[in-house]
Amino acid sequence: MNWLRVFEAAARHESFAKASVELAVSPAAVSQQILAFETHLGEPLFVRKGNRIELNSAGRALLPTVERSLSNVEAKLNSLFHTKSHQHVILEGSQLLTMSWLPRKIAEFESENKNIRITVRSDDFFEREVDEVADVSIRFGARSDFGANAHALIPVSYHVVGAPQVVGGIRKADDLLKFRLLDVASHSVGWQHLLTELSISADVRAIDLMPVENTPIALLMAREGLGLAISLGPVCEPLVDVLGLEAVPLVPAIASKDQYYLAVNNPSRASRGAVLLEKWLTKPS
Hints:
Shape: elongated
Largest sheet: 7 strands, mixed
């Protein structure tokens, strides 16, 4: 069991020294444990490059099984003997993400990782001066806005949605102008951009354009038949579905140049729970 813990920590950090800090032992002890494990298996798991290490093909093949096994053992020990409280991971994202896309994902992750609990918070309201930094962050923007350890997570496209009775009254593109257009200023694609894309020309003063603070408010107003909203797919899909909104069929989706990116903060000190969450959210669907 100890060999597996040491192997997992060394593989996650790609460093015997960083693994030793996490495990509260000396780097030499970590190196000795890895060597003993490799000797037991009869083949190496790491490629040594001076002071650096990286997994070889055998190590990469073994790591996912070790991660799952350690998580399952910890969960069973905790359920039987209450030896350890749940490991907590703080995940931070935008208000829209935390209200719509994330809850289902977190529920699925926790069902597979019984000993890990995810605390979700919105970066729209979190006080930045508080010292508690999120373990994992998901933010929207261009690739150049993020560091090298960020993973592309959710590509975004913009869709026009409304209540069924409103959508049913739209027969041609120009019919959009018959309704109030709920406009979120933070969208990189707003109504002015969308109307231009659809080659709809109209006097700006004649357009019933209503600014709203955020996308959830726009979707809630659209549900009441107060206008049409722009939805970010697939992030908004759970909200759109639960509110009973429909996409306008004749309006094509517009792909955004930006998307959501996920990053583990302080990766050299990241807990196994944070690393597991990162891998789970970014795995190919």
